[in-house]
Specification:
Distance between the termini: 42 Å
Structural class: mainly alpha
Strand content: under 5%
Largest sheet: none
Shape: elongated
Radius of gyration: 21 Å
Number of helices: 2
Helix content: 55-70%
Length: 83
Amino acid sequence: MAKIIAILNVVAWSGFWAFGYLALSADSKDTGSVMTALILAVAGAGAGIWAYLWLVRHNESTGYARKPNRAVPEQHRQTEENV
């Protein structure tokens, strides 16, 4: 499943860049083409972000990547007094 999501990630970001370029380079008078390219670019960005975050969470849960360091509030730290 992770390989399919990784492929989706690459395809989605490719679509974002390709359709984003088309939206920016299209003639502003042709609003139909601009809006279609813009909607497809936004869909590609959304799918790319979702797939990237899914892959990050999956890699952290399987142990392939280390979990990020997070600060623990002082009242929740394990000290010799609290044990």
